[in-house]
User: Fold this.
Amino acid sequence: MQRINGLRMGVLLLALGLAVGCASGGTEQQVGADKAHAMAAEWTQLRQAKGHFAGGEWRQDLDAWQGRKHQLMQALVAEVLAARSDTPAVLALLGEPDARVTIDQADYADWQRRTEWQGSPGPLLWSYHWRGQHDQLLVAFSEGRVSAVGWLYAWE
Assistant:
């Protein structure tokens, strides 16, 4: 009888441990989501500011390599690629793209060729300007999900 009660207690403790583990895992995911939304809000503010490549004054946080805007874009695009996000999720984090190009448009082949891709680009590309049209972040979609991301640099 004690052996059965011990077994029941072991199963109960295992179940409790799994429940706590699952609950804490959900909390970790929420912290990640909260951080992504905070980064997206900061990106939105920086996106509205005008740096050197958008006709304004040079600003370190907007225009410099690895400046804050560049860092935020890298982090957010890593998030959407890892999650293979759908278009609403990308819009929620990055907002409306500066340009959309489909496979049948003239810019598509040029952008696909000149971009350093992570993943396989699909038939729809969204462009987010980092430093005006000078340097851009591209998000590629296939069947409504992110299939690749890449940087289209001017290399000057």
Remarks:
- The chain has five helices and five strands.
- The CA atoms of residues 61 and 68 lie 5 Å apart.
